[in-house]
Amino acid sequence: MADRILSDFEISYIKQGVLADMRSDGRSCRDYRSFELRSGIVSNTSGSAEIKLERTNILVGVKAEIGQPNPLNPNKGRIEFFVDCSALASPKFEGRRGEDLGRNLAHRLSDLYENSNCIDLESLSIIPGQDCWIIYVDALVLEYSGGVLDCLSIAVKGALANTKIPKLTVIGEGEEQEIEISDNPFDSTSIDTNNVPVFVSLSLIGNQFIVDASHEEEACSLCQLSVGVNHKGSICSILKEGAGSFKHRQYNEAISLASEIGVSVIEKITLTNNTAPEKML
Amino acid sequence: MALKGEPHYVAPGDVITANLGFMRGHGTYESDGKLLASVAGVVERVNRLLCVHPLKSKYNGEIGDVVVGRIIEVQQKRWKVETSSRLDSVLNLSSINLPGGVLRRRSAEDEVMIRDYLKEGDLISAEVQQVNSDGSLSLHTRSLKYGKLTEGTLVTVSPSLVKRCKNHFHNLLCGASLILGNNGYIWISPIILDDHQQEQMRFQLPSTPGSSSVKTVTHVATIEERETIARLRNCILALAQSRILLYDTTVQYAYDASLKYEVKE
């Protein structure tokens, strides 16, 4: 993912640091960097959040709109992801080069959300087969320096927790059904995001997995294991990236480590969501 | 106009002077017979020429500056070095100390072996030898102080935060050495040994061409050294975030103040 060039010495320094359990910023292999999550910052969205992790900066906006459900699942709402890697984030996104990564990230998020059944899509249905809520999740990568997938999933979770969907009443029966939106803008429901998982990426450096790799560390890791974890610590998705290999025992260890880290990260998110002063529209 | 010795700060759009006796330099523009600043920075005056030096900019090299850079390209007789300035800098084969320490003519063999000396991705410390007409820099490493950097961490800050000092190489009391590059690249490494060993550490070359270079003499940083380096790195980033000028004293103070916290905090 990262294409930064490092000298041989830097790579060996980082590798030895991982072996000694003292990484170049003083963390041990299983420490997560502190991140800053702010929610409800964009006033013209249904919900939004911004995350800053060192220099990575991602803004997520959620918009709820009424639309037609998928004919295969007529009594379910829809949730759609779009990730934009702006050319401002990193010189390598210049032109249209950010699009591939953006599509890739969006695809992984939608996979994660689909597989884990974390959001009750049936509650988003309004009139089965005719109308439903579509949740558009748009993410903007403002600055790119490693750990994008993790940050993205955290920010999306934050933004969804912050999302307010107006209450509706359905009038009429049969073919002549009509929808009426409540006049009171504060009369709204929120989405239950308790079950929503986040990604925890582990990078293999030398022979060891590390949590939350910095940009330099990503550059010298052979492969990455991205694990989707929910608040109970259960695994929702696993994805390996890169050409490196590892032993079966390491894999099991890595996954249990990821689920541990994932739970603590989610705890942190819920904490920030509950304490953050939310801006009302 | 500002008093002598005291910098005159301006924001974009500020009137620098209404006197038309001055010439318009970089970072200024003219409107309604007044001279205004187009960037935020410090006003500089050379005779009748007024310029504004921006506070936040790419690195503008000056002769004699110490820089830390990364080799990004190997060419026929020279290297291209990335030094966070507008254009890539150039390090000529003729401006490095060849291994062995003796001064000798560069042979055609050296040109062939150029990649054995320095290759893509390597970090070097160097001095600015010359500023070319297009603004690119020519570097040289013809002193034992300069050369390839081995074990350590690179920290990048804004170039304007590094104070121009007499000495940019510091061995800090806490047991790490620091190279404050004028271009905002800061190199932190375990204490560098005396000059003789230092020379050995750099430009250690294989006796037979082709075999892997330098690795033989690298000493592996101990965990204490690593901790110090990590702490220094975080201190420098914290200083840079609060926009405090960096030189040996500020870094040392920050380090001492941070001792009561754990490294990762």
From TrEMBL, chain A:
Q: GO:BP terms for this protein? A: exonucleolytic trimming to generate mature 3'-end of 5.8S rRNA from tricistronic rRNA transcript (SSU-rRNA, 5.8S rRNA, LSU-rRNA); nuclear mRNA surveillance; nuclear polyadenylation-dependent rRNA catabolic process; rRNA catabolic process; TRAMP-dependent tRNA surveillance pathway; U1 snRNA 3'-end processing; U4 snRNA 3'-end processing; U5 snRNA 3'-end processing
Q: Does the keyword Cytoplasm apply?
A: yes
| Location(s) in or outside the cell | Cytoplasm; Nucleus, Nucleolus
InterPro entries recorded: ExoRNase_PH_dom1, ExoRNase_PH_dom2, ExoRNase_PH_dom2_sf, Exosome_comp_Rrp42_subfam, PNPase/RNase_PH_dom_sf, Ribosomal_Su5_D2-typ_SF
* Sequence ranges assigned to domain Exoribonuclease phosphorolytic in this UniProt record: 32-166, 196-260
Q: Which residues form a coiled coil?
A: none
Any one Gene Ontology molecular-function term assigned to this protein's record: mRNA 3'-UTR AU-rich region binding
One GO CC term of this entry? nuclear exosome (RNase complex)
- The question of whether Cytoplasm is a record keyword is answered with yes
One Pfam family hit: RNase_PH
Record keywords: Cytoplasm, Exosome
Indicate the family of this protein. Belongs to the RNase PH family.
Q: Which PANTHER family match?
A: EXOSOME COMPLEX COMPONENT RRP42, EXOSOME COMPLEX EXONUCLEASE RIBOSOMAL RNA PROCESSING PROTEIN
User: Any idea what this protein is called?
Assistant: Ribosomal RNA-processing protein 42
Organism this protein belongs to: Amphimedon queenslandica (Sponge)
TrEMBL record, chain B:
Give the SMART domains listed for this entry: S1
- Which is a GO BP term held by this UniProt record? U4 snRNA 3'-end processing
Keywords, alphabetical: Exosome, Nucleus, RNA-binding, rRNA processing
Would the keyword Coiled coil be found if you checked this record's keyword annotation? no
Q: Which domain of life is it from?
A: Eukaryota
A family per Pfam:
ECR1_N
In terms of InterPro entries, this protein maps to: Exosome_cplx_N_dom, Exosome_RNA_bind1/RRP40/RRP4, KH_dom_type_1, KH_dom_type_1_sf, NA-bd_OB-fold, S1_domain, S1_RRP4
Q: Which GO terms describe its cellular component?
A: cytoplasmic exosome (RNase complex); nuclear exosome (RNase complex)
Occurrences of domain S1 motif (ranges): 64-142
* Molecular function terms from GO: RNA binding
Coiled-coil ranges (or none): none
Per its UniProt record, what SUPFAM superfamilies does this chain match?
Eukaryotic type KH-domain (KH-domain type I), Nucleic acid-binding proteins, Ribosomal L27 protein-like
Q: According to its UniProt record, where is this protein located?
A: Nucleus
Presence of keyword RNA-binding = yes
- Which PANTHER family does the entry link to? EXOSOME COMPLEX COMPONENT RRP4 (PTHR21321:SF4), PNAS-3 RELATED (PTHR21321)
Q: Which family does this protein fall into? A: Belongs to the RRP4 family.
Mind telling me what this protein is named? Answer: S1 motif domain-containing protein
